[in-house]
Each structure stands twice: as structure tokens, then as C-alpha cells.
Amino acid sequence: MQYPKLPGLTWDGTIYENEEMGVYEALLPSGGYPTAHAPAMLELPNGDLLCCWFAGSYEGSADVHIICSILPKGSTKWLPPEDISNDSTRSEQNPSLFYGPDHKVWAMYTAQLDRQEGKDNMQYTAVVRCQKSSDGGKTWGPYETYFPEEGTFCRQPIQVLSNGTWIFSNWICTDSLEGLSGDPTVFRISYDEGKTWKTVMMPKSNGHVHANVVELESGHLVAFMRNREAYRIHRSESFDWGETWSEPVPTSLPNNNSSVSAIKLQSGRIAIAYNPTCTPSPQPGKASWPGLRCPVAVALSEDGGQTFPMIRWMERGEGYMGDENKTNNKQYEYPYIMQSEDGMLHLAYAARTRKGVKYIKFSEKDILGEKREQVGLYNPTAAKSH
């Protein structure tokens, strides 16, 4: 497939080849909305890619809703986004996509009450809803409330474990003066493909949210989490299919109190996309918002997330360096990473201070620094041999 060369990169979804970085990238069509945030992706059985995110005036406002763009298989251009949700009384946020056993695309997302005078954050009113598409993301049916407990929030998609168990990461928001620092992680577990769910709490997980579940081996799970103290990405383990979890402990990767995304690659490595910045002086139990959400990096681990010796910056922002210049960079945040069947990696994140969503396509070799024989070609069979 031939991609046009940079310069280019306009907000029309056209994918360009960035020869300097050795990747392919696009700015997705905005749909005319002033802000975009929290993208998620999914590969369909026919090879199409979906990317959804929330768009509207600003996070927390009732005009914010979920939209979805499609990259048809073999195309070099993302299509203009279509509406998924549109409840005019609630701010609909943090979508995730899942291909269900009913052969429909499930869009799971939060829906919280509109902003109220004197209230900075209404996340404690959120519920989790689901809408489904029978035509590959072109049109969507009405919503169903899956988790009505107020304060329920989500970000990562439903994961299907090797024994068929479903696990869906949530956290519970409260109306707290501590700035969301008390939010604990919970898991919804289903043994009947989402018909019924049980709730499992992660111990001592207050302030640890956005859990990304990865199955290392049969029944052995790890979860990588955002840390409200803006200190480090944290890690927890389960050895019984998610029924019990260890207390979260910090990894070596910085976290700036922004979303992270973790997956297990075909090679067996763990990949985490994140902002490699943190607050210099975390306060135990206190949420911190250092503000800097640039650059975006992808780190690889070969020991289940204990260490991350391989890290590459995939987004450099405007390129400013040093404490005196770093605020000149715009914000690039909430990355979502996935791997398609052909072995390629796909990364999406809110770009240019939530002006829109940026998409990057690359290979595991691009992170490792290994030379590919020809830019744009990738051998997933070879990748599995690492």
C-alpha cells in the first residue's frame, strides 16, 4: 500500500508516511466538534479499523457524546465520524469497543450528569452504558445501562480470558474534596458472556484507576494503572482469573495522572503507551495534576511488566525540551494501543490540546530499533520469534 509523504497531516483522516519517524500517521476528521478526547480502537473481522472518542464543547458538559470513525481495510483515509450516543442530559465519555459473541460491535462508555453550579466534577453521577452496531460501526442501536451504580467509570474494553471468562475494569468515583484521590479499582467479571456480572475489588487501590488487564499465562493476570499521585504507573497481579488481586505497587514507568494503555503483543512482550512524565514530589494519598501531557511513549517489557528496557517516543509534540520550554508543547494524552492481526501496532491519542485525535501505525521493530527491509512491510511470523 502506498501512502503520501509528509508534509501533509491535515484534519481529514488521510494517512501519511513520516519518513523521519518511520511510521504512518493521520489526524482523524474532527466532525466539527471543538474538542476530542479518550480515543479507543478495534479491528473488525473484515479488517476494518474503528476509532471512537468523545467530542463536544468540553469534558463534563452535556453536549459531549461518543463518535466513531472507520478506516476501511485497504484504505489510506479515515472516514468522517458518525454519532454513537446523544443523550442531551448527560456527558458521555471514555468509550471502549468490543466485538461481541453476537457479532456486533459493543461501545461501552460512561454517562454522567451535566455540570452543576459549584461542582467542578460530576463523575460521581456516572453510569456505564452500552450501544451496539450490527453494521461495523456505521449505525448504532439505543443504549442499555449495563452498570447503574452511580460513580462507575471505565476506559479499557472488556477482555476475554483464555478460559472464556470476561473481565471489565472499572473504578468508582465519589463526591470527594480530595479530587478523585479516593477512587478504588473494581473489576466486573462474567462467566456467561455478559448476561450477569460479579464485582471484585482491588485491595488498597484508592487513587489507582484505568486498570489495563493483561493475561500473562492461563489464569495469571496483571493490571497496569494510572496513579492519581502522578508518580508511577502501578501494577497488580492475580493468579486466579481475576478473583483476587494484590495491592498495587509502582513500576519504573512515570505517570502524570493521565491514562495509560497496555496490551500483550503477539511476540509475548507487554507494550504500554503513556506520557513519560510525573510530578517531582508526589504526596501520598493526594491527587496531583502536573499538567504536562507530552510526549507520548511506548515501552516494551519481556518479564510481564517488571522492567521496561525498551522505550521509544512516538509523539514528540512541538519538540520543546527543558523545564523552561516544556510548557510550549501542546498536550498529547490518553493513548490507546492495539495490535492488528497482521502484527502492526496502532496508536491513537488526543492531540494538540484535545483539538482532535491523532493516529499512528508502526511495528514492534520500530520500537526495538530493528531495521525493516522496506518501510511499510512487516512480517508477523518473524515477530513471534523474538
UniProtKB/TrEMBL annotation:
UniProt domain Sialidase: residue ranges: 47-347
TM region positions: none
UniProt-listed Pfam families: BNR_2
InterPro entries: Sialidase, Sialidase_sf
Domain of life assignment: Bacteria
UniProt name for this protein: Neuraminidase (Sialidase)
Protein source organism: Lacrimispora algidixylanolytica
Classification of source organism: Bacteria, Bacillati, Bacillota, Clostridia, Lachnospirales
